[in-house]
Design brief:
Length: 290
């Protein structure tokens, strides 16, 4: 089976890179003299430099395995960069050489040298990430960087959990009330189903243009029209029940049973609505790229 890039790994790694990059850029806005004197800032930059480089290397090692490129830690960036057609492969080699020199306890990289290097080369991180993303989009046709493997996995978790909850609910309330194991079982599988649906939402929300969201991801999808408005109260109830179950709030067997009778059957339809909206989005993307 042909290996393909793991989108979730790349997105997560580059997300961590972006955070470290932004922090470094901000801390390097001060003068060299201030940087040398300010140990707190220097320590922050060192931590962010390590995080940024390791996040970049995580992607590099992954791509070298996917594309069968034989690399070492020191030449991974340059070889992968060359493979995907980046014009600054030599710059990537120099970048890696400096990092390993900086990490080598036998060598002492002065604060001045670190400052000068990062001021001149910090953008390499961003250019490498941009190059990788563009290459993956072009070679896979996955222009929205959707992790279909993750979506299929989460959909399976939802479907399996819904079936298990259905079985317990079908035993009737009296049986449910008299069997403590049933309560624990449906509580667990409800959380699996909800968390999986939320993971689907969290992954796809940015693709639909939802930039800011938290626990309200599903309601944001309703507001955006990805999930029909008729599901607004349902997703609110789903979220409320999940929060009750993971808090110290006591949920009686009767409340849990009745809530699940109402909500469990809604997971698959909501998942289907998200899937339909995704298909429409992908069709639009295909038309605009052709």
């Amino acid at each position: 089976m042909k290996k393909t890039p793991k989108i979730s790994l790349i997105v997560e790694a580059f997300h961590n890179l972006e955070k470290a990059y932004v922090d470094m850029k901000k801390n390097l806005e001060i003068s060299k003299e201030e940087f040398v004197k300010n140990k707190l800032v220097r320590d922050r930059v060192r931590i962010d430099f390590n995080l940024a480089f390791e996040s970049t290397m995580r992607v590099c090692r992954h791509l070298s395995a996917v594309y069968g490129i034989r690399t070492s830690s020191k030449d991974c960036l340059s070889k992968v960069g060359q493979f995907i057609g980046l014009p600054f492969a030599e710059k990537l080699k120099e970048f890696a050489d400096f990092y390993f020199k900086y990490r080598d306890l036998k060598n002492v990289v002065s604060p001045e040298e670190l400052y000068d290097f990062l001021k001149e080369n910090l953008l390499v991180f961003k250019e490498f990430a941009r190059g990788v993303i563009e290459y993956i989009k072009k070679t896979t046709g996955n222009y929205l960087l959707i992790d279909f493997e993750l979506l299929n996995e989460k959909a399976k978790f939802i479907k399996d959990s819904v079936k298990k909850i259905d079985f317990v609910i079908s035993q009737g309330f009296e049986e449910f009330k008299e069997t403590p194991m049933y309560y624990d079982r449906v509580k667990y599988f409800y959380q699996v189903a909800y968390d999986s649906l939320f993971d689907v939402c969290k992954h796809l929300a940015p693709k639909f243009g939802i930039k800011k969201f938290g626990d309200d991801c599903l309601t944001k999808m309703v507001e955006k029209g990805i999930i029909p408005e008729s599901y607004y109260e349902t997703v609110l109830k789903m979220s409320l029940l999940k929060n009750k179950l993971i808090s110290t709030w006591e949920v009686s067997p009767e409340e849990l049973y009745n809530s699940l009778k109402e909500l469990n059957k809604e997971f698959i339809p909501i998942l289907r609505e998200i899937s339909n909206s995704l298909k429409e989005l992908l069709n639009k993307k295909v038309k605009t790229t052709n």
